Amino acid sequence: MHRLGKRLVRPLQQLFQSKHSLTRSSPISPLAFRKELVAFNSVAVENDIDNRQLHVKWDDGTTSRFPHIYLRDNCQCPNCFHPSAKQRNISDTSVLEAYDVNTKASQAKFYPDRQEIEIKWDKDNHVSVFDTNWLKMRRFPTDRDQVGHKIIYSDRRLWGGDLNGDIPTTDFNEILHDDLELYKWLKNLARVGLTLVKNVPEEVGQVERLADRIAYLRVTNYGRTFTVKSKHDPSNLAYTDKGLALHTDLPFFDLVPGIQFLHCIKQAAGGGGENQFVDGFNVAEVLRKENPYYFDLLTQHAFVYFDIGKDYLDFINVSCRLNGRNEVIRFVHNNHTRSSILDVPEDKVIDIYRAFHAIIQIMYDPSNLVTNRMESGEMIVFDNWRVLHGRSAFQLTAGGNRHLEGCYIDWDETASRMRAIEEKLKMKNFTGVI
Ligand code: OGA
Ligand code: NM2
Ligand code: ZN
Ligand code: ZN
Description:
- It holds the Pfam family GBBH-like_N.
- InterPro entries: AlphaKG_dependent_hydroxylases, GBBH-like_N, GBBH-like_N_sf, TauD-like_sf, TauD/TfdA-like.
- One of its GO terms (molecular function) is 2-oxoglutarate-dependent dioxygenase activity.
- Belongs to the gamma-BBH/TMLD family.
- Pathway: Amine and polyamine biosynthesis; carnitine biosynthesis.
- The protein is α+β, with helices and mostly antiparallel strands.
- The protein folds into 2 domains: 112 residues, NE0471 N-terminal domain-like (2-Layer Sandwich), CATH 3.30.2020; 264 residues, Clavaminate synthase-like (Double-stranded beta-helix).
- It contains 11 helices and 20 strands.
- A 6-stranded mixed beta sheet has the order 9-10-18-13-20-11. A 4-stranded antiparallel beta sheet has the order 12-19-14-17. It has a 3-stranded antiparallel beta sheet with strand order 1-2-3.
- β7 and β8 form a beta hairpin.
- α6 crosses α11 and α8 packs across α10.
- The longest helix is centred in the C-terminal third of the chain and has 16 residues.
- The protein is elongated.
- 33% of the residues are buried.
- The N terminus is likely disordered.
- Bound molecules: N-oxalylglycine, 3-carboxy-N,N,N-trimethylpropan-1-aminium (NM2) and zinc ion (2 copies).
């Protein structure tokens, strides 16, 4: 059987819905934006009709080429691109024009003072006007010194035990009231994946207050927020006084919640109840290096997780999805809720167990682990697509129950909020070019 190169085998979801694609509802007008932040000017424009492309020479000495078809496809006039919806406007087969490689710009006029290029299309006399900086931010990778469309999670810092005592820490009130502090905190969440928030009032409602600073939180069958306490008839092992192995929360959803908040309203008076964390992306890279075959086994098979019970609702959640890619974008593992359905070929079962053994060994290697015992009034917020968390057992004492409140929010909403702050505060390295 023909075996495709690993790089080519990508789930459709990744092809059609790149994690890095930007939301269409971005409020940014590229024209308004460039005047504030970008200072490239074009010095010359040449229309290369034979090759159906435009050459734009920039004042930094570089030249970018834009195929005519690309320019026609991306005409920004209000007929082609709806000005407030910011979406392509064509709904009938005339859309085929935009995909016709014979599309030809018969004229291109450069207005250096306005920094605009006016293009006349051969076929229908349509006119398009492009702002040169709009174009510069969309130049193709061959001549791109830096990416205009930057990705919010692009500068990750992988970690191991070196993060002990060094978890990025923020003050609750500052991120509640100051957008720049909020941004810095979210940036740490994107970069490191694990953050500590201090000076949180020791009462319920605080995770939601903080989540509200980002976007709508993610409601699940466990409620808008969830209460982690040792309960009678617990619907989940988390609701006992027992230890929890390193895990991803809610791995049985197709869209695993991206970010988790855990607010310690009251820590266990009798000791125990500290948390362990491990950077799943780091673990994955260690495994890839040490044993590429095990890495492939774990990334190329779908593992099934389940959750069954009653909390606010009766629920039976069962996942069935790919849990990995060649580029690791999610690390999902939860031994408590791993299904007894092991959906792999029979001759792979033993090797799959070997691979699990290898990766769990890396996860629990003391050099990769971070331990933190929250005090009452602290909150831990972490990337649930990346960082696995655990808990050691605790003692129930007469002094009152250990009490955490948690909630989830998704990465899409969070990344969007970050871009909106970048725009509002006119930050360099804007990641919201659409
Ligand atoms: C959870 C969990 C950690 C803790 O509720 O999913 O991991 O410290 N809790 O109780
Ligand atoms: N809780 C805390 O995925 C899991 O089962 C972890 C989730 C119950 C919402 C616990
Ligand atoms: Zn147009
Ligand atoms: Zn958990």
